[in-house]
């Protein structure tokens, strides 16, 4: 990609998404991009964000704006981080170390998934100061304690408990792509792979990705198919008692991810969590869910805890919309992976540059020196 004018060819996330689609085998694209059911929640995420209007400020004079934010006693270079994505390394070779380094470079959080293709230890040298570890809750307390110890020892200081995957969701688009359950390299998948040389070359050099952390607790299983299954066997659907256990055993910041219900937000606050992550998992879990942006005001009213927002962010303007409705931090999942698949290792830094430029351009319109003023510019709540 050297020498190419990235800003001209990929000015927005939509360009990176198109680039990713052209470079990924179909089943990988569907894994990354698809929602559940008829994908109405995924579509409504976009529509609801588009409805949020912010009032430009006239005659604000010259303002020197910063994209820095304070969140849970840390300072981030951008108001958006990298959300946990399972099997990131299947989407692009070495995705986890590349994203962890890009996050460290931009001064933003990198959240590693329990079901990533790298372990916390693999990323010890890459992760930088803002490593978060996302837990799909293991049922076995010994495995649970061991995972937490390993994450902490490898430099992941913030724990994220995901609560919106009590059961596996259906991904009909992924099934249509020909991916079998358990996954097998059928002639149909091989044909998809053969058409995407950049992806295939990278995978051939590094070997097929596996859920390495899960592997460590299921030594008898071998191969992508069995580990994917084992990932579900290990985990439970957490309840408040589970959250209480985590609060007792984790000394650092504890965040609960995947909350849409204001009543749940109150209970989570009462258990001593440090922040709530408002999300509908990008419409990948439940096609009847309200959008995360629509629930944000009610959750803001229900709790004093800091709030993270994700699900459908495509640029700096969307991040400002979320802050206007009560978010204190934002995250993106798919976007970073579109960037990786489109551009390889330089993709995430380019996306960070797009987000920064888009934030500053829109903050200028709103007369904002920093993100904290966004709430005053909300024009019409959704
Ligand atoms: C391919 C893929 C895998 C994901 N895996 C996980 C996961 O392992 N754990 C988790 O908490 N969330 C997971 N998520 C959800 C993301 O963390 C995040 O909530 C969501 O992608 C945000 O929406 P966005 O993609 O529109 O930015 C995944 C999302 C995608 C697209």
Written overview of the protein:
The protein has 382 residues and is α/β, with parallel strands linked by helices. The protein has a single domain, classed as TIM Barrel, CATH 3.20.20. The protein has an 8-stranded parallel sheet. Strands 1-12 form a two-stranded antiparallel ribbon. Strands 2-3 form a two-stranded antiparallel sheet. Helix 16 links the parallel strand 10 and strand 11. Helix 2 crosses helix 17. The longest helix has 20 residues. The protein is globular, with a radius of gyration of 20 Å. The mean pLDDT is 94. It binds flavin mononucleotide. The site of flavin mononucleotide has 23 residues, from helix 3 and helix 17.
Shape verdict: globular
Span of the ends, CA to CA: 41 Å
Indicate the proportion of strand residues: 5-15%
Bound molecules: flavin mononucleotide
Mean pLDDT, to the nearest integer, reads: 94
- CATH class category label: Alpha Beta
The biggest beta sheet reads: 8 strands, parallel
H/E element order: HHHHEEEEHHEEHEHHHHHHEHEHEHEHHE
Any low-confidence stretches, pLDDT <50, length ≥5? none
Spell out the CATH superfamily.
Answer: Aldolase class I
> What structural class should be given to the helix and strand makeup?
alpha/beta
CATH fold name: TIM Barrel
For the largest beta sheet, what order do the strands appear in spatially? Answer: 4-11-10-9-8-7-6-5
Helix residue percentage? 40-55%
């Amino acid at each position: 990609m050297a020498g190419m004018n990235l800003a001209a060819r990929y000015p927005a996330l939509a360009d990176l998404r198109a680039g990713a689609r052209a470079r990924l085998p179909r089943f990988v694209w569907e894994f990354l991009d698809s929602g559940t059911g008829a994908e109405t929640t995924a579509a409504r995420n976009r529509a609801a964000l588009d409805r949020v209007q912010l009032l430009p400020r006239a005659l604000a004079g010259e303002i020197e704006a910063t994209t820095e934010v304070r969140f849970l006693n840390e300072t981030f270079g951008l108001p958006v981080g990298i959300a946990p994505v399972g099997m990131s390394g299947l989407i692009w070779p070495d995705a986890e170390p590349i994203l962890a380094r890009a996050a460290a470079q931009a001064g933003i959080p990198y959240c590693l998934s329990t079901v990533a293709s790298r372990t916390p230890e693999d990323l010890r040298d890459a992760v930088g100061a803002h490593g978060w570890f996302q837990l799909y809750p293991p049922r076995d307390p010994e495995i649970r304690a061991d995972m937490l110890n390993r994450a902490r020892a490898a430099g992941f200081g913030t724990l994220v408990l995901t609560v919106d995957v009590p059961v596996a969701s259906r991904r009909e688009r992924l099934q249509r792509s020909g991916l079998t359950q358990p996954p097998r390299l059928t002639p149909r998948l091989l044909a998809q792979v053969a058409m995407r040389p950049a992806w295939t070359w990278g995978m051939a050099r590094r070997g097929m990705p596996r859920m390495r952390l899960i592997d460590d607790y299921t030594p008898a299983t071998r191969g992508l198919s069995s580990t994917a299954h084992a990932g579900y066997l290990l985990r439970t659907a957490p309840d408040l008692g589970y959250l209480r256990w985590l609060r007792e055993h984790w000394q650092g910041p504890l965040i609960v991810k995947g909350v849409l219900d204001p009543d749940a937000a109150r209970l989570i606050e009462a258990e001593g969590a440090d922040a709530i992550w408002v999300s509908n998992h990008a419409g990948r879990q439940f096609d009847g869910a309200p959008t995360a942006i629509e629930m944000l005001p009610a959750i803001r009213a229900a709790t004093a805890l800091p709030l993270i927002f994700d699900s459908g962010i495509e640029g700096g303007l969307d991040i400002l919309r979320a802050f206007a409705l009560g978010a204190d931090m934002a995250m993106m999942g798919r976007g970073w992976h579109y960037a990786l698949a489109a551009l390889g290792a330089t993709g995430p830094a380019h996306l960070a540059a797009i987000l920064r430029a888009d934030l500053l351009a829109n903050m200028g319109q709103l007369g904002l020196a920093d993100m904290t003023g966004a709430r005053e510019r909300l024009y019409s709540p959704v």
